[in-house]
């Protein structure tokens, strides 16, 4: 026989539930419904917070696989050569039906690497046995310890370029009208091209950066942005795409165009996992040693997981411009060795597109979770931490677009602002930069003069003016207010999409 719960306890439970519910709140920009789905509130121009769910390995649609070991290397005096030979031999083997060649397993022990380990073919996984597999970058040469890269570049398919004809394409849009959709179909890879223009730079006041030694004013030809997208549907002259627009397009700033492209030489299905990487060094400020633990470029649908990096001058993982749909997860970057100044200690650096950094940690860095000039989104930093920081987290310079910093926790600063003449003329760091449920000591979030907004929602920390107090304020909401729902925008968007 079930015991009856006393009425007094029921009242206490009800009160606790009511108190908890009263603390929970939704952003005015996006509401989580009772069924977990999300509803977005457009602004006066139709812009919404974009969908960040299609980032990382296969846009989050596939789990990172466990690939069978086909070659094994053990520590020895010739281990570096044996590792590279194993990779090179595997590169010549045919791909299996899933696009993999196999894994090279490095058994526990220490491996001295005098040059670098190169992966230049698809379908190869470099795997250790956890912290017990230690790779040490020896010598005095600046380089990545593990260098993963294909070849080539984006090549426009001739005769496919067509203009976007809408008067305004808002942030968050996944469709738009073009002059002619003839020849386009679902599955086509396209570039969504947004040209740089003199008027845009003038209205951003990036032709008026206060000059100091080496300052460069922005030039239109340097801001022709290329967003990689996939066509999902065509209706008449209306094109639908997989990932949203993250920077509004309007005719007064050159509008937009699309074209098909090829990328011969780009590789895929490469993973680096379960390794401890270190760099040799001669002093705490020495810089004549390895720069990155892992560098990716000209690759899509790959991953780095369970990798730690110590004593490097730059990054644990550096995703370069043409690294796309890469997941970096459960990685750590510790105890950099370098002078503490510009161009050093960018613990997790992203310059590519549709990439995900999740569950990572960093100490003693400068820009621990950072994007660089003209980084095209969407991109996500999720559930990451930084301690003993020497500079700020956020978009670093020269106009990144479409980045979500979701549950990033730091004892330092997160800033989204006009950096003015820092460096050689950093200027506005970007647009559609979103802080969601982050924690930091100090935060500045400003919006550019024109062409979009930046957001700070649910911050735990102190709001500060930024370098220039007269810049437009960003969209702030719920500062130091507990209970933001959803607790993670990225996780909620991914869950919603998978349920749809």
Automatic annotation (TrEMBL):
<dbReference type="InterPro" id="IPR012334">
    <property type="entry name" value="Pectin_lyas_fold"/>
</dbReference>
<dbReference type="InterPro" id="IPR011050">
    <property type="entry name" value="Pectin_lyase_fold/virulence"/>
</dbReference>
<protein>
    <recommendedName>
        <fullName>Pectate lyase</fullName>
    </recommendedName>
</protein>
<keyword id="KW-0732">Signal</keyword>
<feature type="signal peptide">
    <location>
        <begin position="1"/>
        <end position="22"/>
    </location>
</feature>
């Amino acid at each position: 026989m079930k015991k009856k719960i006393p009425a007094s306890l029921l009242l206490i439970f009800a009160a606790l539930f009511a108190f908890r519910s009263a603390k929970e709140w939704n952003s005015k920009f996006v509401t989580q419904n009772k069924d977990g789905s999300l509803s977005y509130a457009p602004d006066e121009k139709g812009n919404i917070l974009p969908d960040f769910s299609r980032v990382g390995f296969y846009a989050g649609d596939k789990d990172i696989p466990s690939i069978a070991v086909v070659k094994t290397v053990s520590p020895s005096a010739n281990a570096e050569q044996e590792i590279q030979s194993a990779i090179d031999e595997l590169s010549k083997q045919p791909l299996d039906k899933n696009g993999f060649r196999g894994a090279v397993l490095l058994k526990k022990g220490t491996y001295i690497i005098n040059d670098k380990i190169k992966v230049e073919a698809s379908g190869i996984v470099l795997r250790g046995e956890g912290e017990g597999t230690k790779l040490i970058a020896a010598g005095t040469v600046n380089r990545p310890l593990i260098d993963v890269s294909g070849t080539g570049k984006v090549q426009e398919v001739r005769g496919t370029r067509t203009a976007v004809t809408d008067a305004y394409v808002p942030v968050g849009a996944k469709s738009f009208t073009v002059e002619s959709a003839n020849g386009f179909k679902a599955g086509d890879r396209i570039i969504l091209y947004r040209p740089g223009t003199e008027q845009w730079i003038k209205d951003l006041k990036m032709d008026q950066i206060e000059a100091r030694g080496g300052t460069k004013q922005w030039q239109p030809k340097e801001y022709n942005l290329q967003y990689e997208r996939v066509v999902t549907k065509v209706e008449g002259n209306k094109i639908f795409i997989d990932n949203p627009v993250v920077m509004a397009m309007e005719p007064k700033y050159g509008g937009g165009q699309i074209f098909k492209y090829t990328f011969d030489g780009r590789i895929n299905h490469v993973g680096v996992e379960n390794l401890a990487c270190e760099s040799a060094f001669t002093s705490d400020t020495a810089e004549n040693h390895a720069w990155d633990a892992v560098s990716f470029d000209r690759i899509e649908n790959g991953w780095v997981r369970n990798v730690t990096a110590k004593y490097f001058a730059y990054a644990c993982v550096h995703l370069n411009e043409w690294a796309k749909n890469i997941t970096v997860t459960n990685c750590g970057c510790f105890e950099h060795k370098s002078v503490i100044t510009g161009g050093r200690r960018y613990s997790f650096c992203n310059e590519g597109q549709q990439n995900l950094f999740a569950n990572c940690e960093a100490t003693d860095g400068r820009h621990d979770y950072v994007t660089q000039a003209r980084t095209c989104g969407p991109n996500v930093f999720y559930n990451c931490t930084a301690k003993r920081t020497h500079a700020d987290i956020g978009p670093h310079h020269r106009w990144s677009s479409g980045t979500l910093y979701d549950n990033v926790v730091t004892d330092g600063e997160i800033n989204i602002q006009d950096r003015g003449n820092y460096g050689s003329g950093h200027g506005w760091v970007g647009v559609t930069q979103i802080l969601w449920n982050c924690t930091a000591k100090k935060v500045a979030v400003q919006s550019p003069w024109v062409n979009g907004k930046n957001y700070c929602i649910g911050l735990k920390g102190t709001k500060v003016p930024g370098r220039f107090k007269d810049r437009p304020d960003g969209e702030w909401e719920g500062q130091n207010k507990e209970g933001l729902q959803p607790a993670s925008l990225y996780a909620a968007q991914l869950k919603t999409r998978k349920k749809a």
